[in-house]
Design goal:
The complex is a heterodimer. By secondary structure, chain A is mostly helical. Chain A has 13 helices and no strands. In chain A, helix 6 (108-149) crosses helix 9 (191-216), helix 6 (108-149) crosses helix 13 and helix 9 crosses helix 11 (233-263). Chain B has helices spanning 44-51, 77-80, 98-108, 114-127, 143-155, 173-188, 200-206, 224-229, 234-244; strands at residues 6-15, 18-28, 33-37, 59-64, 67-68, 83-86, 161-165, 193-196, 209-214, 217-222. In chain B, helix 3 crosses helix 4. Chain B is globular and about 55 Å long. The N and C termini of chain B lie far apart (41 Å). Classes of the chains: A mainly alpha, B alpha/beta. Chains A and B meet through helix 10 and helix 11 of A and helix 2, strand 6 and helix 3 of B.
């Protein structure tokens, strides 16, 4: 949270001016979409008669009632304590999204028959490709960061060319270049190693900058103290500088891992059986695209939520270490 | 007489155009306690920092334990591990406990066993009187305690000479004396010391020689009694009158 002031202001959603403006805007917005032919119109039947024939009267009064319910909900949430607000708002948004998915008239029997395979094959492949790639990318990033900070022109040139090139090309293109380009040099590469290589090189380039910033944020006094004690460069880096940069490196690296988890869907184009590939191919045969795509979407999301949780735990671990 | 521990001959140093050290000649023998003082920007910190070559000089020779410091000397760590250094801002390693801070260099540089390093660390923590803080992190200690840990950390390497770069300048006033007491005890035990400090009481109590620097040059060098009671140079007199007024 931001640094809070000692004076408590009135909650925005309890200010009359805000509520009036909201009510008017909501009525206008809801009137634009004719809500009488939805479930809300049915609820209004005792008041407006047959929804289909209620005209502008029905349309406006339905919009008014829906806007009122909406505002009442917001005002009530405004009274709740912080944690309760989070839970309630999360649940409401989740319900909205799920009902959006539900409105596609999905065949759950079909999903049930495929989901186990999607998890064992797809999630497993996605996770292990991402995990290997992020590990290799981190190592590459340490090397890149040290090279970019070194006074050796040769190392700096290679590192800066590398980051410039691999940050400058779309990842999808890198996947193609490696998978289709390497065989031109006489080395035929399998799909999975090609995908891992592309993800590693691309994310290594981004993470080089993260590691460089992390290393540079350590005060020079730490270097001086290490030198004065007789530590050599590698020892200083490994035992003094990097451990202290970790709290700064971990959060953006976690971000990168989450991004990579989803970017790994790009390697589906070269036929790796990860989650995205399965989502596209499993549905094709039965023309059940939506089922598989939505299932894959929810699986990606669930994985991300788990990773966010892990990330916050690690962050807290490093925070307690440095205090 | 044995070889001097530190020997500077005709040392000059520039930061770009700025002439930071001018023709410094300076010898430290075993057991010497030397205090360097002078106005801010006079080059006194730069001087001690060239002694373990955290800063390079451009002209003249610096010898530490008979080894000349220069750009192509290769393994400078051999020199540095015998030269303890205490910084104004302590520069403890904040991610390690006090004990780990003390054990690190003996184990990693001297190759001491863990048991031996722990015993050495405890011995020096007793000596700076904070053995009860071993398992705390530097951030949990007061400034004075941190500086004493920093002194103990240097002592654990069993150095031949200790350099102090304004060790009490970053401390709250009530913590200055606990650090100075530690340094005075160290001096009594016969440690060779080069201290940049404005603590004139300390200089009177332990120094064999007091050096006054201004504009990168050594202006005056004398035993403390003559230095304080009958300074020769006008600039020394000005400086002393200013800091002793308080």
């Amino acid at each position: 949270m931001l640094f809070a002031d000692t004076v408590k202001n009135k909650v925005l959603v309890h200010k009359p001016k805000f509520l009036i403006i909201m009510l008017i805007s909501l009525i206008i917005i809801f009137s634009l979409f004719n809500l009488t032919d939805t479930i809300f119109g049915e609820f209004m039947r005792p008041v407006i008669g047959d929804p289909a024939e209620s005209g502008w009267y029905g349309r406006l009064s339905t919009a008014f009632v829906v806007a009122l319910i909406f505002l009442l909900n917001i005002v009530l949430i405004g009274f709740m304590p912080f944690r309760a607000q989070i839970i309630v708002v999360w649940l409401q948004l989740l319900t909205l999204f799920l009902s959006f998915f539900y409105s596609f008239d999905l065949n759950f029997e079909f999903i049930r028959s495929k989901i186990w395979f999607m998890i064992t094959q797809g999630v497993f492949t996605t996770l292990y490709i991402s995990a290997i790639s992020i590990t290799l990318a981190s190592m590459l990033a340490i090397l890149g960061a040290v090279a970019k900070l070194s006074s050796n022109g040769f190392a700096y040139a290679i590192a800066s060319f590398y980051t410039s090139f691999f940050r400058g090309l779309p990842l999808l293109m890198q996947v193609y270049l490696i998978y289709l380009g390497l065989p031109q040099l006489g080395y035929v590469i399998e799909a999975v190693p090609a995908g891992i290589l592309a993800l590693t090189l691309c994310y290594g380039a981004y993470m080089t900058e993260i590691f460089r910033a992390g290393i540079q944020s350590i005060p020079k006094g730490q270097w001086e103290a290490s030198r004065a004690l007789g530590f050599k460069f590698g020892l200083t880096m490994r035992r003094i500088i990097l451990p202290q940069s970790m709290p700064l490196i971990i959060p953006p690296t976690g971000n990168q891992f989450i991004a990579m988890l989803k970017d790994s869907s790009l390697v589906s184009v070269i036929g790796v059986w990860e989650l995205m590939f399965l989502a596209r191919t499993l549905g094709t045969k039965d023309f059940r695209h939506m089922e598989m795509l939505i299932t894959a979407a929810l699986i990606y999301w669930t994985l991300t939520v788990c990773l966010e949780f892990v990330q916050s735990r690690i962050e807290r671990h490093y925070q307690t270490l440095s205090h | 007489m044995s070889k001097p521990i530190i020997e500077m001959r005709g040392v000059n140093k520039w930061y770009g155009e700025y002439h930071a050290l001018r023709d410094i000649n300076f010898v430290v023998n075993k057991g010497d306690k030397i205090v360097i003082c002078g106005p801010s920007g006079s080059g006194k910190s730069t001087l001690v920092r060239t002694l373990n070559w955290l800063e390079a000089h451009q002209e003249g020779t610096i010898k530490v334990n008979g080894i000349e410091l220069h750009e192509k000397m290769g393994d400078i760590d051999k020199v540095r591990m015998d030269v303890g250094m205490v910084f104004q801002n302590f520069n403890l390693f904040p991610h390690m406990t006090v004990l780990e801070n003390l054990m690190a260099a003996p184990m990693w540089v001297r190759g001491m066993s863990e048991k031996e390093a722990r015993e050495t660390a405890m011995q020096y923590l007793e000596r700076v009187r904070i053995p009860e803080q071993v398992d705390k992190f530097p951030g949990q200690l007061s400034g004075g305690q941190q500086q004493r840990v920093a002194i103990a950390r240097s002592l654990c390497m069993n150095p031949k000479v200790m350099l102090f770069d304004e060790p009490t300048s970053a401390l709250d006033p009530e913590m200055v004396s606990e650090v100075l007491d530690t340094m005075i005890e160290l001096a009594k035990d016969g440690m060779t010391m080069v201290c940049v400090t404005h603590e004139m009481g300390f200089a009177r109590a332990v120094a064999d020689r007091v050096i006054f620097m201004d504009a990168g040059a050594i202006i005056e060098e004398n035993d403390p009694k003559s230095f304080f009671d009958s300074p020769q140079n006008e600039r020394t007199k000005d400086f002393l009158s200013q800091i002793l007024l308080h």
